[in-house]
Every structure is written in structure tokens, then in C-alpha cells.
Amino acid sequence: MKTAESIYTKLIRKGLEPDFDTARAELKDLIGIRVVCPFEDEVYEVADRLKAQGDVQIIREKDYIKNPKKNGYKSLHMIVEVPIYSSKRTTEGKGGDPTPYGGNGLLVCARVPDIL
User: Fold this and answer.
1) What residues have CB less than 8 Å from 1, skipping those under 6 apart?
2) 3-class SS at 61?
3) Whole-model pTM?
């Protein structure tokens, strides 16, 4: 999760208002998951499996492995949209089946859910 200081700095650098609503609307990397693979081909295998999921929508992909940054940075960034589920077990401390909660999910770089 990006720190408040990092969020503030990025908003200022982009010339945006440094507030929560602007951060949610404009920044795509507030929360993320990093998947580290020992070999480059495994990175693409993980990405392909993610793309094959029926409930995952790929919003944007940046391939810094095939096109490394000038400083040598190599990574595959994906912004995705996934369903978020809640269950009575987690929300009320009781058993229950997961039910759709709404909003966008997070992986690698993603949008902040509308539920937050």
C-alpha cells in the first residue's frame, strides 16, 4: 500500500489536489500486489493465467521486461479489475457464503475499490 507521504508527493508532482478523492480518482497504484518469479518466462505464465480468468478484466498492461526503462528496471505491470467478495463470516463473525460486494479489486497496480 502506498504511504500517505508517497501519495501526497505524487499528487503534487502531477499538479493535482492532494486529497483522498483525487487520489482515488487519479492514481492507479495506491494498492498493489508484487509477484516475484525467478525466471522471466514465469512472469508471462502468471500473467497468462490471470488473463484466462473469466472474472478478471485487464485494464492496462506495461511490459518493462520487453521494453526496460533506461535505468534497467524490468517488470510487467498490469492494472486489473476483479470482483471483491464479502461473507457474513468475515463481516459478522458468522458462517456464510461469499456474496458480491461490488467495486474493483487490486493486483499489481489497480484502482481503489468504490467500497473504500
Assistant:
1) 30, 31
2) strand
3) 0.59
Single-letter amino acid code for the residue at 35: V
Closest by Cα among 52, 101, 60, 55 to 80:
60
> Which residues, 6 or more positions from 110, have their beta carbon under 8 angstroms from its beta carbon?
28, 29, 31, 32, 59, 79, 80, 81, 104
pLDDT digits (tens, 9 = 90+) for 66-75: 998 899 888 8
- Of the pLDDT bands very low, low, confident and very high (cuts 50, 70, 90), residue 32 is confident
Distances (CA, A) of 36 to 6, 42, 60, 75: 23, 9, 19, 9
The DSSP letter of residue 104 is -
Kindly provide the residue ranges of all beta strands, DSSP E only, lying in 1-75, ordered along the sequence. 57-63
Q: How many residues does the chain have?
A: 116
Looking at this protein, which amino acid is placed at residue 93? G
DSSP 54: T
DSSP classification of residue 113? P
Distance separating alpha carbons of residues 92 and 9, to the nearest angstrom: 37
Give CA–CA dist 36/42, Å, rounded. 9
